[in-house]
Design goal:
This protein has helices at residues 21-29, 59-63, 65-68, 73-88, 115-126, 137-141, 145-154, 169-182, 200-208, 248-253, 279-293, 313-325, 338-341, 348-362, and strands at residues 6-14, 36-39, 48-51, 105-109, 160-163, 188-195, 239-247, 260-269, 300-304, 333-335, 364-365, 383-384, 389-390, 396-403, 407-415. A hairpin with a 3-residue loop joins β14 and β15 (407-415). It starts with 5 loop residues before the first strand and ends with a strand. The protein has 417 residues and is α/β, with parallel strands linked by helices.
Length: 417
């Protein structure tokens, strides 16, 4: 089988900063946090925690009210981001020749899917006294809602599916889309992930695990502090992020702009514990991604870490990087952008992959915010990025996702020539 090169020709997102992809990366480079204190009016007890919301996003304006009315928020975020990526790739919404898109694919990632549709149903039944729910509840709540809508709206006749692997979901989706294009099964694939995590039950479940960082109105912006000695947990966030992957020759033939090249994907399972990470399992995924991409450790200039700011998780990831990169590890630039955009659950891998692609394209590395002067000695051994770096000649970079269940996934990218 002839392996095809895979170009990234479209990038799109619903940004927590309220603007587009380029502005999003500028915020990251500057170390600006999108985390704010969330207070709700939920009964019996309101939510009160640091959170990242896409507060400026208007689904009706982005999608049109008829289409938006058939979806709940995770699908709003996902479809809107995918439409943006499609436009960025220079592709028309409808094909002049539908047969051209017979093998074009849509592979999406989500951890929670349409959970808000079902939570609304519970509230309506138990709190508001309703006896029946909307007949759209099932199609709004299904995990494959985003890929289903996108395949219909964009006329994609190839595989249409979703992946759920906790916070590795969209990394797995991007990796599987990459393989489809590389192996010639699809000329073009739209991929990425979305999640809407402001579900009462979800927030309370994470609180119950004592993994959510505390914060006040004044301190919430720095609540997520990966690799810091005083880190106190993760910050939940919402969002949608999409990429268009394309057969390299197909992209060149139509004159598409190529942001970067995706060259490798590695995955593994810790096979040891549901929630306790293991360095050896993570190292297997890292090595698999490098091998799949034909990359030596000396070629990788940056790693966007999974870095959730949990006490146990952060040192394990650094240990895995040290195992894989060996003597090269102290010169390996590493940052965790969750410190600014929060943990988007099923969309986490996609937003971090996008940040990694932009780092390669721009020759710039975003920092781990709030880390200066706070580094945990247990997380030493790599080149932590405390402030944004520009003018960095990057050749290749990795994006890590290490999920509950021991599901590990790593993407490898090269800078476009």
């Amino acid at each position: 089988m002839t392996r095809r090169r895979v170009a990234i020709t479209g990038l799109g997102m619903v940004s927590p900063y309220g603007d587009g992809v380029d502005a999003f990366f500028a915020h990251l480079l500057a170390g600006r946090s999108a985390v704010r204190l969330l207070r709700t009016e939920d009964k019996p007890r309101p939510l009160n925690m640091p959170f990242v919301t896409c507060s400026d996003f208007d689904a009706g304006a982005a999608l049109g009210k008829p289409l938006a009315g058939m979806m709940e928020r995770f699908a709003h975020l996902g479809v809107a981001s995918a439409f943006d990526a499609w436009r960025d790739a220079g592709l028309e919404r409808q094909a002049a020749d539908p047969a051209e898109r017979e093998n074009w694919a849509c592979i999406w990632g989500t951890a929670l899917g349409g959970i808000l549709a079902f939570e609304k149903g519970y509230r309506d039944l138990w709190q508001n006294g309703r006896e029946r729910l909307s007949p759209l509840s099932v199609v709004m709540g299904m995990n494959n809602a985003v890929n289903a809508h996108l395949s219909i709206q964009l006329g994609l006749g190839g595989v249409s599916t979703s992946h759920t692997a906790a916070c590795a979901s969209s990394t797995v989706a991007i990796g599987e889309a990459f393989r489809r294009v590389r192996d010639g099964e699809a000329s073009v694939a739209i991929t990425g992930g979305s999640d809407a995590t402001q579900a009462y039950g979800v927030a309370k479940a994470w609180e119950a695990m004592r993994l959510v960082a505390p914060g006040t109105e004044e301190t919430a912006f720095q609540a997520c502090r990966p690799f810091s000695a005083d880190r106190a947990g993760l910050v939940l966030g919402e969002g949608g992020v999409a990429m268009v992957l394309e057969d390299w020759d197909h992209a060149v033939a139509r004159g598409a702009r190529i942001h970067a090249e995706i060259v490798g994907y590695g995955s593994s399972c810790d096979r040891s514990h549901l929630v306790r990470p293991e360095a050896d399992g993570q190292a297997r995924a890292l090595r698999a991604a490098l091998a799949d991409g034909g990359l030596g450790v000396e070629e990788v200039g940056y790693v966007n870490a999974h870095g959730t700011a949990t006490v146990e998780g952060d040192p394990v990831e650094i240990t895995a990087l040290r195992q894989v990169f060996g003597d090269r590890a102290p010169r390996l630039a590493v940052s965790a952008t969750k410190s600014m955009h929060g943990h988007l659950m099923g969309a986490a891998g996609a937003i971090e992959a996008l940040a990694t692609v932009l780092a390669l394209r721009e020759g710039a590395i975003p920092p781990t915010a709030h880390l200066q002067g706070r580094l945990d000695p247990a997380c030493e051994g790599v080149d932590h990025v405390f402030e944004g770096r520009e003018g960095v000649p990057l050749r290749a970079a990795l994006s890590n996702s290490f999920a509950f269940g021991g599901s590990n996934a790593v993407l490898a990218f090269r800078a476009a020539p």
